[in-house]
Fold this sequence. Notes:
Elements: E1 3-7, E2 10-13, E3 18-25, E4 33-39, E5 46-51, E6 58-60, E7 68-73, E8 78-83, E9 92-100, E10 110-113, E11 117-122
Parallel strand pairs: 2-11
Antiparallel strand pairs: 1-3, 3-8, 4-5, 4-9, 5-6, 7-8, 9-10, 9-11
Amino acid sequence: QVQLVESGGGLVQAGGSLRLSCAASGRSFRNSAMGWFRQAPGKEREFVAAISWSGGSIYYADSVKGRFTISRDNAKNTVYLQMNSLKPEDTAVYFCAAAGSGSFAVVDSYAYWGQGTQVTVSS
Length: 123
């Protein structure tokens, strides 16, 4: 059974930092693209960042570029999202996604999803 488990969310003040982790189990994703998406209340799930299987290709949404960093450790079957200079508009549930193919920024490109972790940024 494939599972993606996110952790590291929480409440932080504007300007602060959080590091999200997504641990995969049930199969190896070392040959798969992985990504982070987020969904704020009343809004659609949106792309945040994605990383290719080797880490050689990385993509970010314009809204997080320069503030967020995605990385992965294939030996641990884990992907990370370092979030710095957080803003209130970053408040959302953050989801990890795996086994991406096609456009990395599209929800339907991913076969597996975690349950999400809440990130709340206070002003």
